[in-house]
Structure formats: structure tokens, C-alpha cells
Amino acid sequence: MKGFIQTLKNIWSLKELREKILFTLGMILVYRFATFISLPAINLSEVGDLLENYKNQGGNNQGAGLLGLLSSFTGGAFANASIMALGIMPYISASIIVQLMGMAIPYLQKLQKDGESGRNTLNQITRWLTIAVCLVQAPSYLTSITTMFLPYAQFSQAYYVEPNSIMFWLPSIVILVAGSVFAMWLGEKITDKGIGNGISILIMVGILAGLPQAFVQEYVTQTGAGGAGAIMILIEILFWMFVVLLAIILSVAVRKIPIQYVSRAQARGGVNKNLMQGARQWIPLKVNAAGVMPIIFAQALMFVPGLLTKVDDSNTFFAGFQNVFSWQYNVLFGLLIIIFTFFYTAITIPVNQMADDLKRNGGLIPKIRPGKETADYLDDILSKITLPGSIFLAIFAVLPALVYGWLVETQNFALFFGGTSLLIMVGVTLDTVQQINTYLLNHHYDGLMQSKLSRTTNQS
Fold first, then answer.
1. What average pLDDT values come out for the chain (460 residues) when binned by 10 residues?
2. Which of 150, 181, 209 is the last residue before a domain boundary?
3. Label partner for 261 (CA 20 to 30 A): which of 177, 242, 420, 458?
4. DSSP 385-398
5. 204 and 236 together in one domain
């Protein structure tokens, strides 16, 4: 504990790092403040009451499930009809589109290889595409909140102007687009002048914003009449910490492929010597190279089966796809995640390029010939580690549905026991801690969670 406190003092003593952290916290505060500003045409107090009624009455068999899932990434702004209701998600969608198009469009492939100037052009393309995505999502969002409130008698009191008029639609769409662009700008400023990846941090903040309320609801339910008591809360916390540990393992697990640099080895008199002391002598292939992208892709497609209910609302099987905690939803969800994990890993890990780079730099994998044989070997290893990684990721994604009912009593709290939310929180935290460690180690300080490791190394 003393070492951790000393590390915090070291962080505060570095002026540059301190200013970056304070700037990041300031931008987060601005973002959170903006999420509580409602659209000018919306009566926020009435909207809150209508949303609460919607959740309490089941929300078309979704309850807090699908609505909570969409709202969690915006810190509640989606459910509060805020100017930041679309949040940073249009930018994420645009980034995914540009990344996938880069696999097929030669012009984008060229930009990816042009260094800093190419990245700047790609960023500009992503920004313009973000606005296009917003222009599609904003009307869809306004349509969803207006149709959602139609069954309630106080529907007309939720708006200051007629919801079907141009005075409602035009200003609301412009403000929603501006709010999303503002969130994108905040994220980029955090990346440039703050600490960590700004876009990812804003998503994590939106997710964490709902954690205290979800925990309080779970505590009240468990300690109230019919609940299991405070001991169950303790069990839930311990299990959640175990799940977080598994998420960390999934995020950092790699398969190390040893490599040798033949030309440098021969210069020292033998290919079996370990040269370049302190340099990385292996290729790290991540067990979960796709990250959370397969879950995001799968969630985007999971809205399609739910539309089948509108065709035949008497079919209970199709109706299950509207509930994110049903077995129908989660079986299909898990299968899609496994498929997308293989797909995304295949298009983002260029084994042929890796093999060519090794050959060009005089590197080789022991007992494997350079060139095509090396590419085939890397592809085979990648396929073998991706299978268990994809299964683990699928289990992680459906874990909220597994714990809901037998361990966790409230849906909002169950969503934090896995899925995209927890993986994003763990991934962003690890990335931010790594950046802080870099600053500390450059100034000859032990990094966060590095003190014990350093002492153990010195003793050995």
C-alpha cells in the first residue's frame, strides 16, 4: 500500500503528466455535464417519467435490457433525450466502416501506408462519415422516442412543440448531430492533450456512469423483502472481481512466436545465440486479437431478428429475440461473436505481410522456412488460438444473461458482469495505466503495478 501511495505522489510530481490528467478530467466533466442537457423541444421531467413507466411495464419484453444497453454507452444520455443522445457511437460506426472499406478500396489502403499524412486524411474522412451516420441515426432516434411514448396519456406533455412538425424535427436533428460532433471533438482533444485514448475514455465514462445506480438498485432489491440479504451482495462483488480478472487475462493473453535474426547471429558467430539483449525476440499473437469488435458487430445484427416479431407478434420464439436476456437472443448472439471473431481477426492480422517483413529484415522462425511457409505457420497458430479466444469471448458476452436471475436480481447490474461494457472498461483502463507507466518509467519511477515486479527482478 505504501508503494502505491508513493506511486501516486510520483504521478503528481511530474508536471506534464499532472497537467494531462487534469485536462482529461476536465474534458470528462464537460462531457458529463452535456449529457444532462435535454433537447430544447423535449420536456425532460415528463420524458423521465415516461421512460420509467416504459421500463416498469416491461418495455416490449426488453425492460432495462435493450434500452439499458443503448443508454449505457452514452451515460444515460440516450434515455434522457439529451443533446448528447447519440454520443460517440456514430464516430465508432464511421471508424469501423472506414476500417472495413480499407480492406477493399485501394485508395484507402494507400492512405493507411502513407504515414502521418495518410492517417490525417483517414481521420478527416472518418469525421465527415460520422456526420453522415448521425444524419441517419438522429431521425431514427427521434422516431423511436416518439413512438415509444404513444401508449401513455401524458404523451403530449413530453414536448414543447408538436412532435410531427418541422419545428421539432429540424432543430432536433441539427442539435443531435452537433452533440455527436462535439463528443468526437472532446475525444480527440483528450487524445492530443490528455492521457489515454479519448474516444475510448468517453465510452468508458458513459458506462461507469450507470454503475453506482445499478449497484444501489441491486442492493435495495437484495436487502429488501424477498431478497437474499447483504451476504448475496458480498458474493456478487467477489464474483464480479473474478470476472474482471478473467477479462484482464483475456485482454492481455498472447502466444509468443520465437524469432531469430540470422544475419546478426552470424556476425556474432552462431545462429543459436540470443542477440539484441533487451529487444523483443518473439512475435506476440493475441488470443483475442479482435478485441470487442465482434461483440459490436454481433449487437448491430441482433436488431434484425427482433424485427421479425413485428411480422408475427404471436410467435413466442421470435419474440425472444427482443429480450437481451432470453436464451434465443444469447445463443444466436454467441454464435455470431464466434463467426465475427474469426472474420475480424483474418482481415486485421496480415500474416502474409508479417512473413514478408520478417524475411526482409533477416528474421525467421526456427525450423520454419521464410516466405509462404512462415505465413502458413503464423496463420495456423492464429487459427488455433482464435478458436478458444472466440469461445471465451462469446461466453463473456452472454455472461450477463447467465448470472441474471440466479445470482443478480436486477437487469441493469447484470449488464456489468460481462459483455461489451466490462471488456471496454478493462481494455481502456489497461491502456491508460500503460501510458502512465511510460511517463513514470521515462523519469526513472516505478510504474503502476510495477513495484513488486521490479523488486523481484532485482533480487533474482
1. 74 86 93 87 66 49 46 63 83 83 81 81 91 90 72 61 81 92 92 88 85 88 82 91 90 87 51 43 86 79 66 63 81 90 84 85 83 89 90 90 86 83 84 84 64 43
2. 209
3. 458
4. HHHHHHHHHHHHHH
5. no
